[in-house]
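Table 4 source record.
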Amino acid sequence: MDSSLERLVKSLSGSHNAAGEAENITNPADRDLFYYFNNMNDFNTEKTEAVDQAWDKLRTRLEKDDLIPAEGKIMPVRFFRSVFKIAAVFALLISLSVTAYFITNRWLSDGSMITASAGENEKIMVELPDGSRVHINRNSEIEYPSRFRSELREVSINGEAFFDVVPNRDKPFVVEAGNARIRVTGTSFNVLTSNENNEVEVMVKSGQVILTDKNGGQEVVLDPDLIGTMGANEHYRYRNSDPNYLSWSTEILTYEGTPLEKTFSDLKRVHNIEVVAVDKSILDKRISTTFDRQSPQTIISIICTTFNLESEISNSIYYLSEK
C-alpha cells in the first residue's frame, strides 16, 4: 500500500492524525482520494456526535413521559444507543464502499485509450480532451487517452494529421510518430509518419515545434513555414515552398503558372483521384487559378475547358487527352 494511503487508513482508525499529510502526496489522483476519504472520516465524526445529541434528547423525553427508567437505570438505553451507533457506522462503511467503487471505475475509464481512424475515402476531425483539434488524413489514425492526467499531453499518430494544439506551457503536448517524437506547448503543425523517403516529416504552420528521434540524440527546432524530417540516420530542415502543402486538409489549391503535372499530383493527395495524361505534352501545360473546395469532377472539367482537353474515366482513373 502507498505510504500516504496507509497513513489515511490509520487516521480513519483513529490511531493517526491525517492533518497536513496531503501536502506530502505527489500523485494528484492519490491526493484527491486522500482528501475524499479524510473528509468522509470527518463527516462520520460529525454524524456520530449528532446521533449522541439526538439520542440524549429522545432519552430526556422518554424519561419525562415515564416510558424508560430515570438516569440511574438506563443500561438498556445505552445498550440500544450502542447498537444504533454500530448500525450507523456499518451504513456509512457500506456507503463508502459503494462510493469508492464508482470513483475507482470513473478513474479507470478516464485513463482508457481511444483510437480514431480514417478510412481510405474519408478524412475526419477529432477534438482531444484538452480542446485541441486534430484533422486526420485518409488511411491514418490517432490514439489518445480519454483524459490527460499526467504532466504531459501524449498522443500517437500513424499516417498523416494536422494538429491545432491549445496552449498550455505547464503541460506540454507530445506526439509519438513512427521513429520520432514531437514536443510543443501550443501551436499548429502537420505530421507525416512516413514520407517517400520513409522519414517522419513535420511542417509548422504557427508556433514552434521540437522534433527529436526516439532516443533524444538528434533534435530539430522548427519555426513557422519550416519542414523538418527525421530519418533513421539523419535529420534536416528546410523552408516550405509548396503553397498547397496543407491542401489535403483545407481542400484549397492555389496555382500561379504551375505545370499540370504538379496539379495532378496534388489531386491525388487532396482528393485521392488518379489523373493520367495520355498525351505527355499535357503535363507541361501551366495553370493559374484557385480551386476552393470544388469537387474532383468540377476541377477536371475546368482543366479540360481551359486547355481544350477531353477526359474519360475508367476504374476511377481520369484519362486526359488532346481533342
